[in-house]
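REQUEST ID: PR-0412
SUBMITTED BY: lab tech R.K.
PRIORITY: routine
TASK: structure prediction, single protein chain
INPUT:
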Amino acid sequence: FLLFPGVVRDGYPRNKVQINKYIDSIVLFLSKINKNVLNISSIKNFSNERCKYISKSLKFKFPNLNLINSSKSTYLLSGKFKLIVETINSTGFLEALNLNIPVLLIYDDTFCSVRKSAVKEFNMLKKMKIIHSSPAEAAKFVNENYSQLDRWWNDKNLQKVRKIFCYKFARRTDYPLKDLQKILSVNK
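STATUS: complete
OUTPUT:
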């Protein structure tokens, strides 16, 4: 049964089986993270019912886990952390890329598919270790690179790939209405 309405592959786990798989993925990631890194890490806690269930499950597995209760966007909280780890291909991931904030995405195609026009750029982000298909792979990357995240993130090739991706999917503009009018007039 569905816990909330939406399209089948809208990016979020929707039923109990998917949500439990999602929780297992986060638990696997956290259980593989170096304890020193985990002790200084935080997870943003959201207020909807699905997220309350997820937070309670994580708190049960990791009683000392720091949960941040805030309605602020993740990017507004990001200054306190070296790295953001996103678990859903969503606005938070795109914002972090656009704002050039170090971010990883643990991507599960069970919840969200990549449209054909994005596959090439998505694969480029995978090669730069921004996107990880497995929580264990992501944890291994964090453990091996945590002390030098700035060097990884500021790498010339990574930044080039990030800019290419952002130009196509998370472009910044000073004239959003003018740009929207352009897009709408082209698609008539």
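NOTES: The beta strands are 42-45, 66-69, 84-86, 103-106, 131-132.
REVIEWED BY: pending
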